[in-house]
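Sharing a chain and its predicted structure for anyone who wants a worked example. Both blocks are below, sequence first, tokens second.
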Amino acid sequence: MERTDVIIFGAGLIGLTLAIALDRHGLSSVLVDPADPEATLAPAFDGRATAISSSSWRMLQTIGATAGLESEICPIARIRASEGLGPGGILFDPADDQDPLGYMLENRLLRAALHRCAAQAPNVTLLMPGRAAEVVRDAAGVRVALEDSRVVVAPLLVGAEGRNSPTREAAGIAMARWRYDHDAIVATVEHERSHENTAYEIFYPAGPFAILPMLPGTRSAIVWSVARADAPALVDLPDRAMAAEIEKRMGGFLGTVRMAGPRWTYKLGFHHAATITGERLALAGDAAHGIHPIAGQGLNLGLRDVAALAQVLVEGARLGLDLGDAQLLGRYQRWRSLDSLMVASVTDALTRIYGVPGRAASAVRRLGMGLVQRIGPLRDQLMAEARGETGDQPLLLRGLNI
């Protein structure tokens, strides 16, 4: 029988980051994931690139998880949002002495870096592939019997398996959940002109179209939201035809476009757990909430969960508390519930607002963007939100050890 401080189900980006953060502060964890690590680290496993907020990047640096990534990230110096290709819109352009709005990084590179870091962490045990045959959570603690006959016990179980979390379902936690009538097409392109570290969010009646800067300066990630019925035909277009469609939606401002890799489609939906804690249980990341990528906050929302949960557990351990204590978990619930609900609600509202067809709706959206552009304090607040620098920030997000 193996004893540890925390058992984590799910060795994705969230589970790995939490395990590393706990290790850096002297707490042990066992990560259990049924996936083959060779498969999850393969380039074809995940074609997405993620906008990592400045605060999330500070946390990754603080826990020592960014080795080898500094040369791979592309700072997001500014964000330009517009209604179609018309004039106006909003330009988020921080002052030179401020942090970038975020950093673009390929998910596969971040996953590989986290795996390397976890493999070297003395307090992290990675059971991958590994499957739980039985899970018991009760007043005495958490007991997990694995299919290979190993038994792991701990005071706390963390569910970080993603949107379809079996741990959440087994706990009977109620969910608000719905599907959007859109799929996201994700691809990487090369273009003639430099993006100058600018991210573009272009709102079309059929769905938002994001151009996200990557290294070098003539390479970008595309996240294109299309009607679900149209996605199969679009994603199967020949490279030249696909590049032409993307170039048309760019309006030609980055010049000639060519495809620079494979493309993927992802179903878009919303879900939000009624509670993110249970008896000796905490949920983090997509197991707790899943949002539309319209604001690029999905992974960052999960990393904020990690920062808050790590701080609650580390501070609790220093006080000699049971890490599965209901009052301790209540602190995590209170800390994260409002922020996650607000971000989820705002992204859902934006998705619906920008999905309303017609000239009148378009005119109202243009008016709203114009007001944001003219009201400096509001624009500054939105930039702070993009950086993840609002509210009661956990210490790790400020670049400080717990």
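Comments welcome. The first helix runs from residue 13 to 24.
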